[in-house]
Amino acid sequence: MERGGSPAYVCPDGAHWGQPPPAMTAHSATIDVCIVGAGPAGLNAALVLGRCGRSVVVYDSGQPRNAASQGLRCFLSRDGINPHELRAIGRLEVGAYPSVTFIDAQVVAAKRSPYGFELVTSDGQSRACRILLLATGRVDVLPDRPGFRELYGRGVHHCPYCDGWEHRGQRIVAYGEYPAVADLALALLTWTPRVTVVVPEPGQASADDRRRLGEQRIEVAPADIASVEGTPEGGVTGAQLANGERIACDAVFFTSALPQRSALAENLGCEMDDGGSVVCRAHAATGVPGLYVAGNVRGGVHLAIMAAAEGAEAAIAINEELADNGLNPTEAVRPRQPTSGGDA
What we know:
The protein is α/β, with parallel strands linked by helices. It is about 20% helix and about 25% strand.
């Protein structure tokens, strides 16, 4: 496509750059795509791009958000799988595509370069790429109370859709600040009517929060949690309050801040919304040319299967951006040959 005698380089949202964007400049040492993050979003993006024959480097820091979880849920065909096992299976499947490389390292810096982006890892190594996909995820900030960290992922949880079923009909404490804790308590009624709210500042509820909880007969404890009690196996038995009272319960669900695990998106100039999520435009593209995001970096529903879907969405948009700007794989990438005998 020509525009004024020069190539019209197309953005994902259909706009045009007047000059070739840095990420579209040919350079023999430049990788097509670097993916930072090897959870469901990053791995699924790598899978799609590997099947497109794109040269891809996936950086894996080994710090998944769901590391403490005993089982990943709501993922068709993988319901209940250990998150570490899912990542291992994903890496094995993606590794079948020879154009994809994994690097076990943390990316600590990224900047624009004449060829797109340049990344630097914690060991000082650098690499250039045309397109950058950030799938770095979020961090669940655990309440600073004894028992939360020790029982996290077993009797202490943050996601009702991930762990509510296992505690159906049981006694559950919803812990956090208003108004989020009121939303959490009301959501938990899907699984049990036996919900008690505990907040750090019990008197801070708005009239609307009190009304919503009162209509569902959800009790609010008179004091903050001092500690969560449990068994050696990880089950929760109760919550000790700061005023000396004790609430017998079988699980604690909490709300907390969800900061970005990495500052790369913000440092590269991405727009952030009020919730700390990267603002996306068409199909996972950010306002920074050549920069995409997938998974929990974005807003929306934070489920592993949604992150995987967003990784695929981003990968297709990335491949189309490269193709629209005249960059296609220069030779067919053949599947690796079997290492043992047998029928083809």
